[in-house]
Design goal:
It comes from Actinomadura rugatobispora. The protein is of the alpha/beta class. The chain has a domain at 9-252: Alpha-Beta Complex (Amidase signature (AS) enzymes). Helix content is 36%, strand content 15%. Helix 9 crosses helix 10 (337-348). The protein is globular and about 60 Å long.
């Protein structure tokens, strides 16, 4: 099945700001599509119809007064359940928090609302976002609108399914190891992970690994740029947050500015197995981009060390432990075995392991700094395997090689460790669902990465 293509973010906002479309109509359309389609997709875990319609009325009244409600005016917004919205359930996909209600709103959501967006409901995540497929004991299985037997990816799978099915034009997501880029890849969307700190994570984000990035999933690069321009900028609640760029991202989508840049392609970052069909489809898209954008292909000459996976896991263990440590012992049986594994690892964590992990991260950052002296953009698949069954598990083998939990994340999580900007943009289809091309740039070269994504979009459209 090929999902429907409703209005984009930019189209919806333009119509609402001009008075040609009432915000309440946009919301009603979104609610109707959710009612029609979500029964067998499982994208949403909570719907706030009353709140959305009330917000829409406020926007319509603003337009009627001659005011401008903002660059996201009337845009229905899905919110990943890892992002708090005051008064909404805040379970984070876990039965441990099934009854919890959020007492605050994420800065990302609050800034989108201030720009005119209308939160519709919460989208599904695996428990605490710790899987690349979206299923949980609390909410069940989320399915891919392109093929309901397959996963939309994870952990932002509910958001990806909602946007791909046309229920909403945009939904928030998180990316701790690929959780924006992998769902974007499997659902034919744009999933951008900015430089670490580009999208603020406040208030009350207590992660210690410094791998988590916030962002959105959309149908177009311009829609992503529009959202970024509304939500980026320093936040006193997030010590890692970066100032807003001097030029709006939406204004920086100039493919002509790419001409002559050095671009490298690698299917595997030097040591990761990659499904041959995925590699062929994505490399063909990369070649079309290189030819169409006038960039220059150069060798990648890059091999990331295998220790990065162990380092990532070590640095992530405390974050999961923070969610589990207060749980009554009798309740831990409801926790997914992968999540429990993090808890077990926390009990065995020592100072040597932490030091080794930080040193591995430092070597990775140095290796990438040297690599970006040789090229300006790095192209890879956004994941090395086609979409797999919706119920999971994650692949245990890729291209005939056995892999662990990190096998299908081997081309995404290194850029969470390093903090580099990376985007997945649709490249074609493999194995019954879409597959994405990942574009990685130097740290803080977010605008360049988005401009390249826009060029890929133009070349392949």
């Amino acid at each position: 099945m090929s999902p429907a293509a409703p209005r984009t973010v930019v189209e919806t906002a333009a119509l609402v700001r001009s008075g040609e479309l009432a915000a309440r109509e946009a919301v009603a359309e979104a609610l109707a599509r959710i009612a029609e389609l979500d029964g067998d997709l499982g994208a949403f875990v909570h719907i706030d119809a009353d709140g959305a319609l009330a917000r829409a009325r406020e926007i319509d009244e603003s337009v009627a007064r001659g005011d401008d409600p903002g660059p996201l005016a009337g845009v229905p917004l899905g919110v990943k359940e890892l992002h708090a919205v005051a008064g909404w359930p805040f379970a984070m996909g876990s039965a441990l928090h099934a009854d919890r209600i959020a007492g605050h709103t994420s800065t990302l959501v609050a800034r989108a609302v201030a720009a005119g967006a209308i939160p519709i409901g919460a989208t599904a995540s695996p428990e605490f976002g710790r899987a690349s497929f979206t299923a949980s004991a609390l909410h069940g299985v989320t399915r891919n609108p392109w093929n309901r037997d397959l996963t939309p990816g994870g952990s932002s799978g509910g958001s990806a399914a909602a946007v791909a099915a046309g229920m909403v034009p945009v939904a928030t997501g998180t990316d701790g190891a690929g959780s924006l880029r992998i769902p974007a890849s499997y659902c034919g969307l744009v999933g951008f992970k900015g430089t670490y700190g580009r999208v603020p994570r406040g208030p009350y984000h207590w992660g210690t690994a410094e791998n988590d990035h916030y962002g959105v999933l959309t149908r177009t690069v311009r829609d992503t740029a529009r959202l970024l321009d509304c939500v980026c900028g320093s936040d006193e609640y997030d010590r890692s947050s970066l100032p807003a760029p001097s030029e709006p991202f939406e204004d920086a989508l100039r493919p002509a500015g790419l001409r002559g840049l050095r671009v490298a392609w690698t299917p595997d970052l030097g040591n990761a197995p990659c499904d041959p069909e995925v590699a062929a489809v994505v490399e063909a898209a990369a070649e079309k981009f290189i030819a169409g954008a006038g960039v220059r292909r150069v060798p990648a000459d890059l091999r990331l060390e295998a220790a990065c996976g162990a380092a990532y896991r070590t640095l992530s263990v405390p974050d999961v432990h923070s969610e589990l440590r207060a749980a009554p012992p009798g309740r831990l049986g409801s926790v997914h075995p992968t999540v429990r594994g993090y808890g077990d690892a926390a009990a065995a964590l020592d100072a040597d392991a932490l030091v080794d992990a930080h040193q591995t991260r430092a070597r990775l950052v140095a290796a990438l700094a040297e690599a970006f002296d040789r090229f300006d953009l790095l192209l890879t698949p956004a994941t090395q395997v086609p979409a797999f069954p919706a119920e999971g598990p994650m692949p245990a083998e890729i291209a005939g090689r056995p892999v662990d939990h990190w096998g299908a994340l081997a081309v995404t999580f290194p850029f969470n460790l390093s903090g580099h900007p990376a985007v997945s943009v649709p490249a074609g289809r493999a194995g019954g669902a879409p597959v994405g091309l990942q574009i990685v740039g130097r740290r803080h070269a977010d605008a360049l990465v988005l401009a390249a994504a826009a060029a890929v979009e133009a070349v392949l459209s």
